[in-house]
Automatic annotation (TrEMBL):
GO terms for molecular function: oxidoreductase activity. Signal peptide: none annotated. One of its GO terms (cellular component) is cytoplasm. SUPFAM superfamilies: NAD(P)-binding Rossmann-fold domains (SSF51735). This is Short-chain dehydrogenase/reductase SDR.
Length: 247
């Protein structure tokens, strides 16, 4: 594409996620003026109409892999207007969110922290030089309301809660450095609500009627909310209704 270097871009990291995939579909329909850059661990299986519009990148989410991927984004440096970091785990074949003290294990907790906190943190830090410039940019990291320390009334899910609380702290801290070094970037820790994806599947039974959102609904909310957000040099912790969550 000969005009790539002049075009603005949206960058979706964790493009294989239910929410990230839905954001990409929305962007294809709603934002023909910008490139769509999709990063995932595996080449995404996109239908033809999306494949023509989406530039895909694979990354193993290692430190070296993230650095290398950010290098590949050089043609879009200073032109990226939206970043969505949508990686995360709640359960795997071997990991279950803890219900009680005895469920906690070092290996599971470290793995949840690696995926939910360390990987998004590496993206936040490594992308800094790619985002600075005059293009206003909103960078949303998928957090969760259960990461709020002040809003924790139910307990349980030690590792997932801790991983999202730590992620929130990284977002808040990074916003201070971004305000100095890349003041055109707004950082957001975003709670999408309970969304009908693989991540929430085993836990959907107790979700109240009308509170299990489709990924497409959340993608619309995320894009609408982010486009209206002032770039104010501070981090925001927002839910799908644009309500502020207390840290
Ligand atoms: N669904 C919900 O109800 C809900 C609620 C609150 C918060 N969230 C947050 O929203 C984000 C997206 O959730 P989702 O529901 O769309 O989840 P999802 O469909 O299960 O996707 C999660 C993504 O995380 C990445 N990932 C999974 N395992 C990984 C591993 N071992 N190492 C590195 N990356 C891995 C993958 O990205 P790639 O395959 O693209 O590499 C995967 O597509 C997560 O951070 C989640 O915590 C979701």
């Amino acid at each position: 594409m000969s005009t790539t270097q002049q075009r603005q871009a949206n960058l979706i990291i964790g493009a294989g996620s239910g929410i990230g995939g839905a954001v990409i579909k929305r962007l294809v329909d709603d934002q023909p003026d910008a490139d769509i850059l999709a990063v995932s661990r595996h080449p995404p299986m996109l239908p033809d109409e999306l494949a023509q519009r989406v530039q895909t990148f694979t990354c193993d989410y290692s430190e070296a892999g993230i650095k290398d991927l950010v290098q590949q984004l050089t043609p879009w440096y200073g032109q990226i207007r939206l970043v969505v970091i949508s990686t995360g785990v709640l359960h795997t074949d071997t990991i279950r969110p803890e219900k009680r003290a005895e469920d906690l294990s070092m290996s599971s907790m470290l793995e949840v922290l690696r995926i939910n906190t360390v990987i998004p943190s590496l993206w936040l830090m490594t992308l800094l030089p790619a985002l600075g410039g005059s293009t206003p940019c909103r960078m949303l990291t998928l957090s969760a309301r259960v990461g709020s320390i002040s809003d924790n009334h139910k307990g349980g899910w030690y590792s997932y809660r801790a991983s999202k609380a730590a992620l929130n702290m990284v977002v808040k801290t990074a916003a201070i450095e971004y305000a100095r070094r890349a003041p055109n970037v707004k950082l957001v820790a975003f709670h999408p609500g309970t969304v009908d994806t693989a991540l929430s599947k085993p836990f959907q039974r107790n979700v109240p009627e009308g509170k299990l959102f489709s990924a497409d609904f959340v993608a619309e909310r995320l894009l609408t909310i982010s486009s209206d957000l002032p770039v104010d040099g501070d981090a925001s912790y927002l839910d799908w209704a644009a309500e502020t969550i207390s840290w």
